[in-house]
Amino acid sequence: MFDAGTFLDASLLVAMGISLVAGVLSFLSPCVLPVVPPYLAYMGGVSVTQMEGESSARGKVFLSAVFFVLGLSTVFLLLGFAFSAAGRLFLSFQDVAITIAGVIIIIFGLHFIGIFRIPFLNREARIDAGDQGGSAFGAYLLGLAFAFGWTPCLGPVLGAILGLAASEADMAKGTLLLAVYAIGLGLPFLLVAAFFPRLKGPMNWLKRHMRTVEKLSGTLLLIVGILMLTGKFSDISFWLLETFPGLATLG
């Protein structure tokens, strides 16, 4: 029988929080945020101008956005399952794998902060899902294409979450981490689709501060990498349990 108390421990809650923040930062990244309005408009079979002024157009866009998010979530859930299964399969080599993953994630973090630049991380491979604008199936295909095609750009942040999934060596927990990441990335798409006129101003402001977003992403990667190298996730779990004793009932 499934035991929620054993499954949801303080360490997993920390990893889930990191996954959620990572998903939001992925949405705010320079290769995602600027193309959100035209992508949503294309998926809904409307123009960006119609998205601004017609509620019926936003309804079509929102429905397409739901299927788009389902598409990208499909890929992330499969990745979470695969990486956590790999972590379980190679459990005897897990410490070495986590150390290597931690070093790589730190290198990615230094790239985003600007200490040095890794050229291939500055481009993304955009996959064309064909002339499917305006259909739910087309939006789902675009979600699949988005998850695969933006890997060079999303890769460092996504890689950190996949590293956490592999370190869990538990397929259910690893898949949950990627589901939370998908929520962090997908929910903003739905909010923009539903409230585009109101969010247009904040989105423009964020576009002007992309460098800050990159530095925040780099800082998150550095933290995750250091935690993986030093094995400090358990220390954070203990701190949470001391600060919030009620969490002790979870695990």
Model regions low in confidence, pLDDT < 50 over at least 5 residues: 1-6, 125-132
**Number of helical runs?**
11
What is the succession of H and E elements? HHHHHHHHHHH
As a percent range, the share of helical residues equals over 70%
Q: What would the principal axes of the Cα set say about the shape? A: globular
Mean pLDDT: 77
Query: Span between N and C termini?
Result: 15 Å
- The number of E-state strands comes to 0
The main pleated sheet reads as:
none
Number of domain units: 1
Radius of gyration: 19 Å
Structure class? mainly alpha
> What is the beta-strand fraction?
under 5%
Task: Give a written overview of the molecule.
This protein has 251 residues and is mainly alpha-helical. The chain has one domain. Helix content is 77%, strand content 0%. It has 11 helices and no strands. Helix 5 crosses helix 8.
